Hints:
This protein is mostly helical. It has helices at 17-34, 49-56, 58-75, 83-99, 108-124, 127-144, 154-171, 184-191, 200-204, 210-230, 239-258, 266-283, 295-308, 316-329, 336-350, 354-362, 369-388.
Amino acid sequence: MVGNDISNFSPGAELLPRTRLLLHQFFSVVGEAIYPPEICHAPDPLKSAWLQYIINDKAFFHVSLATVATCLDFFQRSEKDSEQAILHTNQAFNMINERLSGAEALSDTTIGLACMFSVQESVRGDLEKYNVHLRGLYQMIELRGGIRVFEDNLEVLQKICRTDVQYALHTNSWPRYPYMEIPKRVVEELATTQGCVPGTLSVIFQGASSVVCQLVSDIERCCFMFNDICEKRRPTLASYDFQGTLVSLCHRLVRIRLADNSTLSTVQKACLSGLACYISSLMLQFGRQRHLRCDLLRDELKGVIEEMLGDVSCSAQVRLWLLLLGSISVFELEDDSWLLPLLHLEIKASGLQGWMQIETEMRRFPWIGSFHCPQGKAIWTKVQNLSITPS
């Protein structure tokens, strides 16, 4: 952890060496996955409500360790849950089940537990269990008096809305809680991007509704801002500003994708699918090593790309963006058999020579260099190896 030391606190549970390591990893591994350090400052752990929950609540302590263990399993592509993940999950479940019948059933800590269980299941890719925790979260919030009760607790409010909208994005369902506004500090920063943003998608969406055009413009301008921050041309965002921006863009995108889009062209609809994959790639950043599994978006994007192959109105550059972004955000290793040959054809059709030209073209679309280029270049290298392999 940078700048803060939590190694000496006592959380009300015995701290074995491995447990202490896992606790540190919670704030480094999980923290950086949610708050990418290239773009935003991580919340100060010593001031975080989450640390207070861990210190004072054994159930939260165990669910935090379970989430870390699940993330490590995910990194290592383990085929089954580790003993640590199972142990801490079971202990947390037993404690929360006891709590649900008592006075703490609707506390902020219990609501935080539901959010943490949801994060864990999103990493595991179990949308059914994710939904179970989410429905429990909804019920607790309604019994508390609704989402407005949390307006004075931004950290908890953003966790709730993020949990809600991430599930909506990955299941193509309506989010429960509105989170429409981009934070004021970010709006001020976006105002300085006027005339600087490539606007490739904004051109494609000309003629669409003002709501759609505004979202596309906001995503492009935020992407430009994120790239500037990563390249040290703008100051790093506060954690709550990044989180609020991501949740707002995701919420608005989900609502637009679920609305009547019969007036949109095939290419415009394809680009909305691409934007969903772009947002998904920002949801949890696991060291650029893995992305969350999302079979619904994966199948949708594959279908969109297949449809675009015969559409003369879709440029090779748009198809290449969809293919490369998909390879980073939703496609799996088993997709290489069809993905790599198709990428080879589209790179050739686009007339781009070498990775530098491809990167320059991708930056005309929503594409964050420090996030997407390392994986994109790795995919390009695989394509190059494929093209020189004797048949």
